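User: Can you predict the 3D structure for this chain?
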Amino acid sequence: MSCAFSFYFRGGAELLFDGVKKHQVTLPCQPEPWDIRNLLKWIKQNLLKERPELFIQGDTVRPGILVLINDADWELMGELDYKLQDQDNVVFISTLHGG
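Assistant: Here is the predicted structure, written as structure tokens:
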């Protein structure tokens, strides 16, 4: 059994992922559902192509990356502890821009 998710990278974050803005991903379902903490580790190992320090800081996203889960701010959803549901959409938007 597997779980399907969509990940979107916007606001320049897509540049860290070979310019790909949308990723359709099927992950193996586990006895414990995937949470955002484990998802970020998986993204770092499997999708992130360059400069991980611009996306990940410790075990979370770095400041300046807005995370939306099904169009809601992840702060309202439990942040790193949010348990992903099949067909969830997770959007990462960089709010930091060079000048």
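The chain has a mean pLDDT of 90. The CA atoms of residues 16 and 50 lie 5 Å apart.
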